[in-house]
Write a structure and sequence with these properties.
Elements: H1 18-25, H2 35-57, H3 59-62, H4 73-85, H5 88-98, H6 108-129, H7 138-141, H8 150-177, H9 180-211, H10 228-254, H11 261-296, H12 305-331, H13 334-358, H14 372-393, H15 404-413, H16 427-432
Helix pairs in contact: 2-14, 4-6, 4-13, 4-14, 5-6, 5-9, 6-8, 6-14, 8-9, 9-10, 9-15, 10-11, 10-13, 11-12, 12-13
């Protein structure tokens, strides 16, 4: 790895005008005519047009939602599923900051960035589903507070957790802008924001599950249980780990020029570690689901069409990825681990849609089917998040080396804030060195 400070052409230089630098950073970086851009750009543009149509014409003109089925894929996928996928942020920060598992330092910033963007985009998508979206601030300003409502708790958890994640990632922004004093202050806030964020994330992961406790007669008995909040927390573990594996694998191919040879070499060890955690969570989840099934005594439901759907979910998207994760971790097979992560991610989508859409009022003669407008807008939200992630990674020290001054700054304050890799410094070794106190 090059040990010289080669980041001066990437980040803002000392004395460089801030606004001039920001304007220069708006210019595209990299190839424009890539297969991904060609596919995603038209969908994003069409999605923006349809979003305008949704807010001007209303839900009735753009969705298949009605009084019987007020929640569709904008809730079932964008919010309920998206929050589970974003769980990797609280899990990885917990492992690094609380458990001191230093080998995961290299992926903290990418994971936190992915989680923060997921919450920003999915919270934005939440406004699409509201009949009166201008009232989304009611839980914040105190109008119709609804302190006994689960949605009140979820709304505040969302807001506070997005703030906590922004603080966690903000040192990278300060490094990009060359703001040394601000970087010193933000670095000192990181650990507190991480601990606060972990608590918030666990609360609203379970809070989303608690929403469905209010509809015992409307959700199929194979999916309804008083333990839905616990199942949502446990499933968020293997959901988050799977997304981190998928995102990490793609990033190591797309942004390989930004990642040091040292971190490339460690990627396999990180994948194996995350896969073992995902497999353990899948085992616990399967065991809990069996207990719920035995306790509920719904054996007769297994031989119905909904029962076949339940068996597909449990065998195809819980047992199967568990086995593949175990085999892949044992043999250190990258393809097996990635395959298991993809199957697990699809399984989470399947499970969340089963709970919130498919198994909701399964007995109704006319069931909800999303309109093409709902699907296009959902795809636009997903692609928009990926574009935002790529924009940040190409400019800020997520995978790239941080400026050399960051190492000296952290030595002064005794910080071990995760960074891409400080130029010429092994971040794990640096984190373990005793802090020197200047007299």
């Amino acid at each position: 790895m090059n040990t010289t400070d080669n980041t001066t052409n990437v980040y803002r230089r000392v004395g460089q005008d801030l606004w001039t630098f920001l304007l220069s950073e708006l210019k595209p970086k990299g190839k424009m005519l890539t297969p991904f851009n060609i596919i995603s750009a038209p969908i994003i543009l069409l999605g923006l047009i349809l979003i305008v149509l949704r807010f001007t014409k209303g839900l009735g003109a753009t969705t298949n939602l009605n009084q019987e089925f007020p929640w569709g894929i904008w809730i079932g996928f964008d919010v309920v599923t998206g929050v589970a996928f974003a769980a990797g942020a609280y899990l990885v920060t917990f492992m690094v900051y609380v458990l001191r598992m230093e080998k995961y330092h290299a992926i903290v910033r990418a994971t936190v960035l992915n989680g923060f963007l997921a919450y920003v985009f999915y919270a934005g998508a939440l406004t699409l589903d509201l009949g009166r979206p201008w009232k989304i601030i009611n839980p914040i300003i105190g109008n119709s507070f609804g302190v006994s409502s689960v949605l009140f708790l979820v709304a505040w958890h969302f807001l506070l957790y997005m703030m906590a994640q922004f603080i966690e990632f903000s040192p990278a922004v300060a490094e990009w802008l060359g703001l040394k004093k601000l970087r010193k202050v933000l670095g000192s806030l990181t650990v507190g924001a991480v601990v606060f964020g972990i608590c918030l994330s666990m609360l609203h992961q379970s809070g989303l599950g608690a929403l469905f406790l209010l509809a015992p007669a409307k959700i199929h008995p194979l999916w309804y249980t008083e333990y839905i909040p616990v199942l949502f927390i446990v499933s968020s573990v293997f959901a988050g780990m799977s997304i981190v594996i998928i995102e990490g694998t793609i990033s190591h191919r797309v942004f390989h020029h930004q990642i040091s040879a040292e971190h490339h070499a460690k990627h396999m060890d990180i994948m194996v570690g995350l896969s073992r955690l995902a497999a353990a969570a899948l085992f616990v989840y399967f065991f809990m689901k069996i207990l719920v099934l035995v306790h509920g005594m719904h054996w007769d439901e297994l031989l119905t069409p909904m029962g076949y759907l339940y068996l597909l979910e449990m065998i195809g998207f819980v047992v199967l990825p568990f086995v593949i994760f175990v085999m892949g971790a044992k043999n250190r097979d990258r393809k097996l681990l990635l395959s298991a992560a993809v199957i697990t991610a699809v399984g989470i989508i399947f499970n969340r849609l089963n709970v919130s859409v498919i198994a909701f009022k399964w007995y109704a003669p006319m069931h909800y089917i999303p309109s093409w407008i709902e699907i296009v807008i959902t795809l636009a939200v997903v692609f928009g998040e990926i574009w935002a992630f790529r924009w940040v990674v190409n400019r800020m020290p997520v995978f790239m080396e941080s400026p050399q001054w960051v190492k000296h700054l952290d030595d002064e304050v005794g910080q071990t804030v995760p960074q891409g890799v400080v130029a010429g410094v092994n971040s794990e070794a640096a984190a373990l060195q005793p802090v020197k106190i200047k007299k």
